[in-house]
Design goal:
With about 425 residues, the chain is mainly alpha-helical. It is built from 22 helices and 4 strands.
């Protein structure tokens, strides 16, 4: 009779009930990170923290064997919510196994709309060794929306040939989302091209009827360092083009201050006016922001309250000085129903008095700079601590100005 002790039962490597929790949380955190990358409220440290949370939930999912994970996540590959589709696809791609990767590629080939966006983002982010060839095939032969998504993923990994024969066809696609994505992919490909990139039909994008395509076109022009960018922007702004105004607010020189200010003040949307003045960052816009903060002198309706809040936020984005006053519920229209009244958000109304005092105290100092963000001059070189104090939107704006000047500044990521 053997005296060898019997083997202990195998210990489970994961808790199946936790997989759904990790999946849901991964989708939620990815959605936060996706929005934060271009946010005027998030810093680089916030992106790093969100990225760590994404990775933590991925590691929680990877505790399961690949086959079990595929069974759990495969339904999510067809989710209508882009963040849910991302969570399923990204975790499966991170297994670095053939079967889960193939499941993602097959889902990618038939996906559309928000589902396709989520799968695309996962392919942009995950290691590409097992799926790069499938993306090249999709770029050549798939339907336009899928081909553009494949181009974006390849470009994110530095694998998209700048001279791809499919890209010019995608620029002209009837679907604006496809055309815009193709331009964003071309921007990345051209930045990483060896030698001079091919000539691009920029005018096709800049004159497009869709604002997203025009925006992607301007980004491509700027990161290509095109000398005609500023003169062309001035012409478009003079013609009343809103996307061009936003880019001129980001890129304009001292000679453009009057045009940007005049065009911005002519806008009818109060929040849009404030956002553009904050993006421009010129101290001459501060007086208008202070006027808009004083809702008691604006006519007293909910639109004025909303504009006042936006003005206070824009003032702080430029100066770095908080001018919060009283906290109250945002006013609603007189004919609003009970639910709308009850759910009106609590906001900090700005104090015009605090803002005026700040203007008087710092006027001479601030007049010395063309652009300010959070109290820092951003029209001159910044040291590393100052750069880390900037929000993500202003960091990308700095990169755009550097790229237009001929620098090798990185463009914003597609995912």
């Amino acid at each position: 009779m053997s005296t060898t002790p019997s083997a202990a039962p195998a210990r489970a490597r994961y808790i199946p009930q936790l997989l759904q929790i990790h999946t849901d949380d991964l989708a939620f955190v990815w959605g936060q990170r996706r929005k934060a990358v271009h946010s005027d409220q998030h810093m680089q440290r916030d992106i790093a923290a969100l990225s760590e949370r994404v990775e933590a939930h991925v590691q929680g999912l990877l505790c399961a064997p690949p086959a079990a994970l595929l069974d759990h996540l495969q339904p999510g590959l067809s989710a209508d919510d882009s963040d849910e589709a991302f969570a399923a696809a990204y975790a499966l791609l991170r297994t670095a196994q053939a079967a889960p990767t193939q499941a993602v590629i097959e889902a990618f080939g038939i996906a559309a709309g928000t589902t396709l966006r989520g799968l695309r983002d996962a392919l942009c982010l995950a290691p590409h060794a097992l799926f790069a060839q499938a993306l090249h095939t999709a770029l050549k032969h798939a339907a336009p929306a899928t081909a553009a998504a494949a181009a974006a993923a390849l470009a994110s990994h530095g694998l998209l040939p700048a001279a791809s024969a499919r890209l010019p066809l995608l620029f002209e696609d009837a679907d604006p989302a496809t055309a815009a994505l193709a331009w964003r992919a071309a921007l990345l490909a051209d930045r990483k091209a060896h030698g001079a990139p091919p000539a691009r039909p920029f005018w096709l994008a800049l004159s497009h009827a869709d604002a997203a395509v025009r925006d992607a076109g301007w980004a491509a022009v700027v990161w290509a360092g095109q000398a005609v960018a500023l003169p062309t922007l001035r012409k478009f702004v003079g013609d009343g083009e809103a996307v061009a105004l936003r880019w001129l607010a980001v890129l304009g020189t001292a000679d453009d201050v009057a045009l940007v200010q005049r065009s911005t003040l002519a806008l009818t949307d109060g929040a849009q006016r404030c956002a553009l003045l904050a993006r421009h960052g010129h101290p001459s816009g501060l007086n208008a922001l202070v006027r808009w903060m004083d809702s008691s002198k604006n006519g007293s309706d909910s639109v004025d309250d909303t504009a006042a809040v936006a003005a206070g936020e824009a003032f702080e984005l430029i100066t770095g000085i908080a001018v919060q006053g009283e906290r109250r519920q945002l006013a609603v229209p007189a004919d609003a129903d009970d639910f709308t009244r009850e759910m009106a958000p609590l906001v900090w109304m700005p104090s015009a008095e605090k803002a005026r005092a700040a203007l008087e105290q710092h006027a001479a100092h601030r007049a010395a700079g063309l652009r300010w963000r959070r109290g820092l001059r951003v029209d001159e070189d910044l040291d590393a601590p100052s750069a880390h104090a900037l929000d993500m939107q202003s960091r990308w704006d700095l990169a755009a100005r550097a790229a237009l000047a001929g620098g090798r500044a990185p463009p914003p990521p597609i995912a």
